[in-house]
Amino acid sequence: MSGTEEKEIRKGFGEGLFEAAKENSEIIALSADLGESTGFGKIMEELPEHFVECGIAEQNMACVASGLAHEGKLPYISSFAMFSPGRNWEQIRTTICLNNQDVKIISTHAGFSDAPDGATHQALEDIALMRVLPNMSVFSPADWAEAKALARKLPGYKRPAYVRMQRGAFPVIFQETDKFAIGRAKQVRTGRDIAILTTGSMLHNVLKAAERLSAKGIEAEVLHFPTIKPLDKPAIWSAAHKFKKIVTVEEHQIDAGFGSSIAELLSEVLPTPVLRIGVKGEFGESGSYEELLKKHGLDSESIALSVKKFYNN
Fold this sequence. Notes:
Blueprint: E1 6-8, H1 9-23, E2 27-31, H2 41-46, E3 51-53, H3 58-70, E4 74-80, H4 89-97, E5 104-108, H5 126-131, E6 137-139, H6 144-153, E7 161-164, E8 169-171, E9 186-189, E10 194-198, H7 202-215, E11 220-224, E12 227-229, H8 233-242, E13 246-253, H9 258-269, E14 274-279, H10 289-295, H11 300-312
Parallel strand pairs: 2-3, 2-4, 4-5, 5-7, 6-7, 10-11, 10-13, 13-14
Antiparallel strand pairs: 1-8, 6-12, 9-11
């Protein structure tokens, strides 16, 4: 792991899908007039036979993709997370999940990452919307390399899947050669005092927060979950056995999100105090990405302070 070079997560997925499409004639990338913005630009330009422009019609795009999957194609639909699944959730539910069609929903600009465009464009509820659906898997890669590895892996994953990614450049934490295992968490930092579980691009801030905690004498173990559904249950149970308290961090509403899925699991089999760090029932607003993260306690300093308070109480 390096964490020094910065690259766009969505472009990592786009590069991985481009490579996969060159090898697999069944892969079809679909766009709702946002192909370039969602990382599908290279497919649009160099593999036009693998690309379908659906226009600003997210609901139709989901139905077209379901039909393509029924005919044996491997469709990937792309838009901003606020529009897909935000606008086409019913079509995803009924035409894709109910029929268990092999469609991949690739969504970018999640969380606060579309910061200047304000609340209407900031998807803070999409994990909740997608993880509740039967047959649907949910992924949130942490960086460019992991997104690329996921894109190479998904063509062989024969079921509906949702991939959540942020806009903008983030530190590259993993190596491009690292293998992606669906349903497996990654231990990114060892610790003796408390476990911090996170997903997506928040991993970078969580690791920085862990370093801040270390300077205060608290050693946090960090587990990254690129797969939100299905969860890596053994990893969660192991963390709960090892530590008396668990913290979850997500760029999403804490209600029905990643942290909720951890709390639900532990409440049934191994009750453990869980602090969920995320958005607490508020909409976003216009501002810089850094300002919004700080306001909602998702910058590294705020995360460290919340974890320290929870650990000491």
